[in-house]
Each structure stands twice: as C-alpha cells, then as structure tokens.
Design goal:
single chain, alpha+beta, 5-stranded antiparallel beta sheet, 4-stranded mixed beta sheet
C-alpha cells in the first residue's frame, strides 16, 4: 500500500491526490463516507498514468464528475475515486462550435454560449452537472437534451487510448448513452450551436432559472430528480399522490415543493436517504402498482 501511495503522490502531487477524502464534500447531496483514494487529474496524461498505477495494484476505480447525480453510502468507497472536474474544465468557443473539457460545468458552458450569442444550450444553464456527466446520461431539461447539440466526444477507452466518438455512435436516449457499458471516460465534448440573439438567449435562461426556483427545492442539498420517469406517469406526482409530500426520515425529506426531489434538510446520512427512497418505492408500488427506479446513482460499501 505504501508503494502505491508513493507512486500516486509522485505522479499526481498534493493537488491531485487525497487519502480518505469524505465524499460528502464532493456530492450535491452532501452525504457520503470516505474514498480510500481521491484523485483529481489535471489532464488526460495524468489520468492515464493514475489508472495505470491503480491497475498495477488491482485497485478498483470509479469515475465521477460534479457528483450531482450521486448518492454515496455512509461507509464510503473502497478503492479510488477519480473526479474529472475543475482541473479539467477548459471551454473554447470557435464560431458556432464549443469544445469543453469533461470537468467543465454545464452552467459555465451555457454561459460561454450566451456570451458568444449562441443558442441551443439554454436548457442546460441550470443543470448542476459537468459535461462528462451530462454526456454519460444524455442530460436534459425543458425540452432540450445533450444529443441535440453534441457533435462528438473525446474519451479514454478501457485500453487507455484516447478516441473521438461521433455523437451518433453513442446511442443517446432518455438518460442513457453507451459510455458506461463501453467503459469510456469522457475527456471532453464538441457541441454545435446556432447563432442567435444574445438578449433573447439570456432572457430564456432567466425564464428557465425562474421556473426552477419556483418548482424545485434549490435551497437544499439534493441530487435533482430522485426517480426516473416511469412510462405513462410522472414520478413526483406518484409520490405526491401516495401522500408522501413532506415525509421525513432522519435528515432526509420528500420535498414539500416538488415530490420528485428527496432533499437533505440538515444532518441527513446516506442511510436516511436510502430508507426514504425505499419507503417511497414501496408505497407507490403498493398503491399504484408502479415500480419507481432511481435516477440517482447509488454507490459505495454496504
């Protein structure tokens, strides 16, 4: 173990490697135990080298972005968590093309688009995830999706090769891409937008921000919509109709503003949230015969 730590420290430095880092500091739910190794590479080469070292010692690896769709259990994560985030977040605009590194926040990319009078990313301006996470799950809101603007994605393959994959080969669908099953790590994305009117673009972004403030419990830590939309239903309405609005377990609550959101009202543990998820699933199944699947990704030691 000491040799592994030494090799990682030499390659990544203090800024790139932390030991026993609490995951609650890196998820929007603000819960989660320690990651044995927490790595924030500054570029693709550092990422490749870190994975190579970890593989040599048979250390399991999990890759995350902004942690906005993640629920980490209280016992934490055995092995290494690699976060593609603020150290890999460059955004470049060239005409109607935007190229963004995987760690760039969607909100920052949407803001750059507005600065350049480019329309097409307004839907993404309030989504709290990173470009990498947005590609992985084909993030969308208010009628827009990543697949509407994506041209291609640069990835690191399982064989540690850097490849450019055209968007049409990513099988982008509702909250889905082939990225996880192919074992790709998103390094960056190229998006094509349309020239528009800056004031109209900013007006639309402000309108969507106001809708979010009205309908979503943005003042509390959460991971956005907790459940996937079941075919023919709305998850939040099912939870509300089951009489669960405001239901609380420990520090976890079904939001009184939007029943599709489970929130951390203060001091919640991951187990509180997991128990509340299970309670909602059981009640909705018992009352309506509908199975709610989580949209939030649940990880960590049980």
């Amino acid at each position: 173990m000491e040799k592994l730590i030494q090799e990682l420290q030499v390659r990544l430095g203090e800024e790139g490697l932390k030991l026993q880092e609490m995951m609650r500091e890196h998820t929007t739910f603000r819960v989660g135990g320690p990651a044995e190794f927490f790595i924030q590479p500054k570029d693709a080469e550092e990422l490749k080298d870190a994975i190579g070292i970890l593989r040599k010692y048979d250390v399991p690896v999990m890759v995350i972005g902004n942690g906005s769709n993640l629920l980490v259990r209280d016992k934490g994560i055995r092995g290494a968590v690699i976060q593609i985030y603020s150290r890999m977040a460059d955004v470049v605009v060239d005409g109607d093309i935007i190229e963004a590194k995987g760690g760039a926040l969607l909100s920052a990319v949407a803001a750059k688009a507005a600065d350049a009078s480019l329309t097409g990313l307004e839907f993404a301006s309030g989504i709290p995830g990173s470009i990498g996470g947005a590609v992985v799950m084909n993030a969308g809101a208010y009628g827009g999706e990543m697949k509407d603007v994506l041209v291609s994605v640069d990835v690191l393959t399982k064989d540690l090769e850097i490849k450019t994959i055209p968007a049409e080969e990513l099988d982008l669908g509702y909250r889905h891409s082939i990225v996880p099953e192919a074992g790709y790590i998103v390094l960056g994305a190229k998006m094509k937008l349309t020239k528009g009117d800056e004031s109209a673009i900013r007006g639309r972004m402000a309108e969507l921000a106001e809708q979010r403030r009205e309908k979503q419990p943005l003042q509390y830590p959460s991971a956005g919509s907790t459940f996937k939309r079941p075919v023919g239903y709305f998850a939040g309405k099912l939870v509300q109709d089951a009489g669960l609005k405001g239901k609380t377990i420990g520090g976890a609550q079904v939001s009184e503003k939007h029943s599709g959101f489970l929130i951390n009202i203060g001091g919640a543990t991951a187990q509180d949230i997991l128990d509340l998820i299970a309670f909602c699933q059981k009640e909705v199944k018992d009352q309506f015969g509908v199975t709610l699947e989580t949209e939030v990704k649940i990880v960590g030691e049980e």
